[in-house]
Amino acid sequence: MSTPERVWDAELVHPADRLPHTGDGNQPRDAILVDPEGPPAAGLASRDQLRDALVLDAAGPPGTGGAVVLAEMVHRASRRWPVRLLAWLVGLQVKLAGLATIVAGLAVLATFPLAQFVSLGYLLECSGRVARSGRLRDGFVGLHKAAGLGIFVAGAWVLLLPVRFVSSMAARARLIEPGGLADRGWSIGLWFMVLLTIAALALWLIGVLMCGRAVESLVSGQPMAAAWRLPPRRRAWEPRLYVWVRDRLWEFAVGLRVPYYFWLGLRGFAGGMIWLVLPISLLALGSSGHPVAGFLGALGLMVVLLYLPFLQTRFAAENRFAAMFEGGAVRRLFRKAPVGFWLAVLVTLAFAVPLYLLKIEIVPREAAWLPSLVFVIFILPARLLVGWVCGYAARRQRPRNWFVRQAARLAMLPVVGMYVLIVYFTQYTSWYGVASLYEQHAFLVPVPFLGL
Questions:
Q1: Alpha helices per DSSP H over 287-367
Q2: pLDDT tens figures, 195-213
């Protein structure tokens, strides 16, 4: 039996990781093995359905040979329609909760100086993934993890309400009569509520982790029993539940890929500033009595706006900093999808213009995440659209005809020209004046003020 050459959305696993085995340790129990190069197995699966299968290394560590395990696919197909409907509804709710958590999380991260690069890196990664696959749904990264985090945070906020109430009452009693009966009583009650809240938070964390695994099994069609199975005891003094929770938390923390997003965002920010610093500096000189420099800066910024969104997307898709400066590759992609490029530039700049209204007056640091929330809501769809256009252009073989390309070029000029004009006058309305010209939120961090 040979290993399939192409299996979409498959996962390479070792036999000891996922399924129970027989005595020889090579072949899983209750699995159906199908030769992908042979005929379908009695109507159980066709070659097109292999995308939902697991690729199992049946030969052990050497990795020679392989087989397609269709146990999970058969289990998914055997479920009745109410279960499939329930799985679809639960999956939809999880995705919506994950999307809301991601938007709120990016807005909060964008308000902290170094965490801003994590927020920008995630936006670039979304655009890059869409550019690689050509599918918009691939741009929503980590929805399930974000949903679990959002549910835990919301539940923890509710669980902290009683202890916050008792703490406020204890503070008032201490203020009214220090050392009195009410002060001592509320202080003892506060310690009791703190211990009770810690225990409740621990139980809530375990419940969220277990329910999260159960939801993943329901949505993916895997047997529900596997979600509740605890790992074997590794040490005699370690409870199995503790080991399970510890491993799940570690997997969750590693799966967030915070260092990767930070490094991606830092390089994306640096590349964007390299492109923007010269034309914006010349544009800023135009307001200081140097009209020629301002005119040259406006022309330079117009040229940069035609390239920078697609250069950042190619950089994120290929994870190469040099791709940030390959303008020829962007021009070749433009020839294949000129109308798409025009639409992407229009949406990116049009969504960025209303956000300048939030730069008029600085907001308190405690509420800085509120305008950042609006920034993320506007910038994320633009990033996804740019990624989709790049992916679409990369898959096309032939360029569009000359007339369409020239029409798209001419249509881009008034779009970028109007944006540059608006940006020039925002220095007179923004809080930081001329310095606000460097806060290009459409290409840099999604926050109204870089100094936050």
A1: 291-318, 327-336, 338-352
A2: 999 999 999 998 888 888 7
